[in-house]
Design a protein that fits this description.
The structure holds two protein chains of two kinds. By secondary structure, chain A is an alpha/beta fold. Chain A has 15 helices and 17 strands. In chain A, strand 8 and strand 9 form a beta hairpin. The longest helix of chain A is centred in the C-terminal third of the chain and has 21 residues. Chain A starts with a strand and ends with a helix. By secondary structure, chain B is an alpha/beta fold. Chain B folds into two domains: 220 residues, HUPs (Rossmann fold), CATH 3.40.50; 40 residues, no CATH class. Chain B has seven helices and 13 strands. Chain B has a nine-stranded mixed beta sheet, sandwiched between helices. Chain B has a two-stranded antiparallel ribbon with strand order 2-5. In chain B, helix 2 links the parallel strand 6 and strand 7. In chain B, helix 3 packs across helix 4. Classes of the chains: A alpha/beta, B alpha/beta. Chains A and B meet through strand 7 of A and helix 5 of B.
Amino acid sequence: MAEKFDAIVVGAGPSGNSAAYVLARAGLAVLQIERGEYPGSKNVQGAILYSHALERIIPDFREDAPLERHIIEQRAWMLDDDSYVGSIYRSNAFNRPPHNRYTIIRAQFDRWFSRKVQEAGALTICETTVTDLHMDGSRVVGVQTDRAGGSVYADVVILADGVNSLLARKAGFHGELQPRDVALAAKEIHFLPESAIENRFNVQGGQGVVIEMAGKITRGMVGTGFLYTNRESITIGIGCLLSDFQESGISPYALLEQMKMHPAIHPLIEGSEMKEYSAHLIPEGGYNAIPAVYGDGWLMVGDASMFVNGIHREGSNLAMTSGQLAAETVIELAKEGRPMTANNLARYRKKLDDSFVIKDLKKYRRMPDILEHNHQFFTDYPEFLNRAAHTMVTVDGVDKKSKEREIRSGLVTRRSRLGLLGDAFKLWRAFE
Amino acid sequence: MHIIVCIKQVPDSAQIRVHPVTNTIMRQGVPAIVNPYDLYALEEALRLKDRYGGRVTVLCMGPSQAEAALRKALSFGADEAILVSDRAFAGSDTLATSYALAAAIRQIQKDMAVDLVFSGKQTIDGDTAQVGPGIARRLGLQLLTYVSKIEGIDVEKKEIVVHRRAEGGAQILKTRLPCLVTILEGVNEMRFATMGDMFRAARYPLKVWDKDAAGIEDIEKVGLKGSPTVVAKVFAPQPRAQKAERIETQTGAPADLAVTLLAKLFTRYPHIEREIRKQAG
């Protein structure tokens, strides 16, 4: 006899855990199905935890969640082969609790989150893959898993199965993932003693630093690199559009290896011991690539719905909030005694539209297109900025006016006056 | 037929790192798994249950996290699961562990007689292969180690016939029940649990026995006090600096290859050459 639940959540990442937690706390019978050996075993992220989204779901998460370091300093680097120019924002205000963001190790964090979900009353089944959706006409009524006797039914199914949502594609909820809509990121975690991290990054206690990087390290591809400090390790990684990787033939690991050898980066990780490596797809198609996120008997949350803000490197907070909003929609409908039809579940999309999730994605809706077709932002400009800085900083008896002229003419040769104007306009439109 | 399977939760040794500074094992973040050898024992027990009917009880000693290992065993089809867990057990070596598990098995027997106790060949973290035999000795059970196959059980006569790997060959042994069997690795393949068993395992109200429930009579025989083993030193072996060399074998006569290899060997270890020449006269 197949079992029936109020809701089935497919996936145990940030969006699935948030949805399952909120549903279970409201007293609904929730089944969560995860294909990994344990929750978190297949999940990959930078990873920065933005507190605000989790705070709204588990207000006292800081009491027992495995957090690495709270971030007090954000660096942005534009790299050339030998150099970088950059900006730093560091503030003591970030030291005052409650902290705004933390580095985390996802394998540990996800297991903590899953424990919370199970304590809230949800039933979590791992090592089980959902292979299909059970339909009654156009209405989703349950899931088929890869186990014997694997059919399970529910009033609503929440698809939280990640960037490459095979389930949604199979059900026809969205098409094949386009290489231009996803980035491929490779990252490594390197062990480094606490004292070494404190010395190299000028931090103490639980303080941490984030470095976001762009420029020569992506070898002309649209993408960025990153370096985060954990308690006793460094996370370093780089990601570029999948379509660019396809075109260039460069392998992600070769790119990461090269990035690690950059004269500005290498000293930061020197002597460390690599603990783990991983790679993952990041949905970066933005607002225009968002598929339908609800239908008869189903909702879609997190990466599966393209809820990633590539410009601000945010994703898990969008995932958590979308999971929460999906759960709240289901809870409201259940309380009102309304069926989980597409009409009623449309309330989820409305909630998303009113939240930062869609507002931010909408603001940057032109960005993916502009970056994809204007590689100069990742090649010419970083190089120019570094050369300009070099010219101005080098003291060699040349007068400053001449130096300025040299920089200006370098820029115009590179991009032409019209090109410069066009780029400025595009960026203004993208950030508008 | 009532079979008890003893399992242990161990850190996944494939993912363990040694702390570069303190040289201790970094357990944090290392996933805990069911000792892989124990899964062969569990599958073998489940197969006997399929053949002869009966009940399979899994037994585990460990901290509360070991619950995950027991639930895993339940999902494969074990009927009951008991976690023996008490602060008093902390620091137990194999001697103390076998004392505690033997006591727990006596308690289980009060409820239902036990015909067979299964365990894996050894654990992947301790590698001692001592706990199974320790339990057998304490309970006065026949002991069959390194078993590769269970030929069959005569339920009427209470006899079991097994194949056992021994030095220089295989033994086929018959003995009377009850007995303790340690199962070799690779003798079977663990089944894929049904959805129903996954649900049952997730919902099963786990039995957790403290030292009293487990029937521990002498508290001096468990935990650190009951453990004569002393870990004198833990160290990470240094990787060897020597590089491997690739020698092409497709071309040239085998005799030439042998000469090349000998020459290389003698260059690196002159004393071997001296020894051989001396023996050759």
